[in-house]
Amino acid sequence: MRRFAILILLLAILATACGGDEAPEASTDLNVKMSDFAFDPDKVAVPPGAEITITLDNIGSVEHEWVILKDGVQIEDEADLPDDEETLLADFVYWEAEVEAGESGTFTFTAPERGFFQVICAIPGHFAAGMEGRLQVVRPDEG
Ligand SMILES: [Cu+2]
Question: CA 37, 39, 43 angle in degrees (round to 5)?
Answer without folding.
Answer: 145
